[in-house]
Amino acid sequence: MSDEVNDEARLAALRTYQVLDRPRPPVLDELTRLAATMFDTPMAAVSMIDRHRQWFAGNVGLADQETPLDVSFCATIVPARKPLIVPDATLHPRFSSYRNVIGAPNIRFYAGAPVIDREGYVLGAMCVIDDEPREVADRQVDALSTFAGQAAAHLAAIRSRFQMAQLGDHLARAAQREEDLVATITHELRTPVTSIQGYLELLAENEELEPYRRLIEPIHRNGQRLVAMVDHILAGTRPHDAPLPAPVGVVDLNDVLAAALRSCRPLAALRAEPLDVRIGPPIRVRADLARLAHAFEQLLRNAMLFTPGDRPIIVRVTGRTRPAVEIEDCGVGIPDEELPYVFDRFYRGRHARDQAVPGVGLGLTIARGAIAAHRGTLEVTSDMRGTTARVTLPGAG
Fold first, then answer.
1. What are the residues whose beta carbons fall under 8 Å from the beta carbon of 385, sequence distance 6 or more?
2. Is 68 left (phi over 0), alpha (psi -120 to 50) or beta?
């Protein structure tokens, strides 16, 4: 392995983040899930490059918590300090002989960008992986670098909380307790469900079991719903006095919205009238990309759930005075007497109850909390013609 990987100063810096051999931080798992959705890949990871292994501090779709460096694509990024794109690993002179290319998880496409901390050390890489060959555009490589920057900022925040907790800071200890609790619940639930879903996928691929596919697919789909629901409830029931993470990096507001729209594709595909998305030139904001995208996702889902599929929904990104996103629908609207309560936890209006609209009444609560953490505002207005949600954020300058 290269001298850069084994550099003692880099390895010492890596250990100060205290993510090796610990439960994965939820924020990094959220980031990898968003990256996998954004790039439409089944696997993504935040890979920390140790002396003899890579440790997945954030992970979606990969069965292992760590792998040796002799099968690590990410390790090659440490000395290069720049993104690595491998369209088809079976054709690559170096990677084609790797065990994880020849066998499971059968890596074909790999794209990774370096995770570089404030001191200039390359801690590892943010990567997305597919078992089918593919190409990426320059714009997507830039977006992956943005994700890597977010990972570095999250790691810095994690390290700061540990350091402050060691000094006895109350808020830091509260944040760390909350993150440890969420990490434990997430691990204890998602790990067995992910294993079950993996076996279901193997069963679905077995031609002899074709007659039973109609039974297998609903089980798989409901497993995904179970994990999503627990994540949703954890996000929406965060204690009022628990500190929310501050915005962690500069991102393009259009990229944040694009990530949210990707997450909503299954619901949008059911509509006869596609979403009318009007993006603008790059608008820079300081944001936790995953948290802010999740907020937009809640607003988009609300608009689609309460708007008949043949009526328009307009999504605008503007930056004329301040960066803003507007989601305007032509749905059922919110009665005046219900509007003051829409941000309350678990509140569901009469229409949602009568029509059995999916949800537990946490979407707007989650959205407002995330937007407030970004020092922004969420305003919801409504009449019989529909509802408009307007998010206003401070600029990056």
1. 330, 333
2. beta
Burial of 354 (0-12, 13-18, 19+ CB in 10 A): exposed
Query: Three-class SS of residue 20?
Result: coil
Residue 110's closest CA among 34, 166, 263, 94?
Answer: 94
Beta pairing partners, 315: 277, 327
pTM attached to this predicted model: 0.74
pLDDT digits (tens, 9 = 90+) for 361-373: 778 888 998 899 8
What SS3 class is residue 41?
coil
Q: What is the DSSP letter of 247?
A: P
Distance in angstroms (rounded) separating the CA atoms of residues 190 and 298: 21
| H runs (alpha helix) in 206-236 | 213-236
Q: Distance (Å, rounded) from C-alpha 330 to C-alpha 297?
A: 18
For residues 223 and 227, what is the distance between their CA atoms, to the nearest angstrom?
7
**Residue 240 and residue 294: Cα distance in Å, rounded?**
19
pLDDT bin (cut points 50, 70, 90) of residue 193 is: low
Exposed (0-12), middle (13-18) or buried (19+): which is 195, by Cβ within 10 Å?
exposed
Q: Tokens 């170096």 map to which residue? A: 94
* Amino acid at position 117, single letter: D
CB atoms within 10 A of CB 108: 19
**Residue 358 CB-density burial (10 A; 0-12 exposed, 13-18 middle, 19+ buried):** exposed
Burial letters 109-133, b for 16+ CB under 10 A, else e? bbbbbbbbbeeebbbbbbbbbbbee
Residue 156 has pLDDT above 60, yes or no: yes
β-pairing verdict for 284-286 and 250-252: antiparallel
